[in-house]
Amino acid sequence: MHLIPGPSWPQVVLAVLLASDVLMSVRPPGFIRVCLEGVGLPREWWWVLLVPKTLAVVGLLVGISHAGIGFSANAGVVVYFLCASYAHVRARFLKQEFWVNCLGFLAVAVAAFVVSFVA
User: Fold this and answer.
1) 3-state secondary structure of 35
2) Per-residue pLDDT tens for 68-101?
3) What is the DSSP letter of 63?
């Protein structure tokens, strides 16, 4: 295991996907609204989710050239989506939005971590 991503392209892909999610979440489209309502997150707290995602985007990109930052950011994204998965399971909201949004991001985050830092 190493602390500088090699290759770095999975980190860029994850950062772009997360940045897209952040931009969409500013004014959530239907599928994001359904997801957030499905887990019972109050609408006035939706903005809070933008903070860790934005920090993760910055950390993933800065971490391409600074040891440990990308590693930590990628690990944080994995933990974030594990927690989101738990929230979905706990709320018994296991519809399409869970499988595509939540588990899709979790799979991409795990794959980026393995390719960049483990393999």
Assistant:
1) helix
2) 999 999 999 999 999 999 999 999 988 888 888 8
3) T
Residue given tokens 């960049």 in the structure block = 116
Burial of 72 (0-12, 13-18, 19+ CB in 10 A): middle
Closest alpha carbon to 105 in 88, 89, 91, 85 = 85
pLDDT at position 81 is 96
The string of pLDDT tens digits covering residues 36-72 is 999 999 999 999 999 999 999 999 999 999 999 999 9
Amino acid at 116: S
The span from the CA of 71 to the CA of 54, in Å, is: 16
Q: Which residues contact 69 (CB under 8 A, 6 or more apart)?
A: 59, 62, 63
User: Which pTM was predicted?
Assistant: 0.92
User: Contact, 82 vs 107, CB < 8 A?
Assistant: no
Cα 94 to Cα 2: distance, rounded to the nearest angstrom? 35
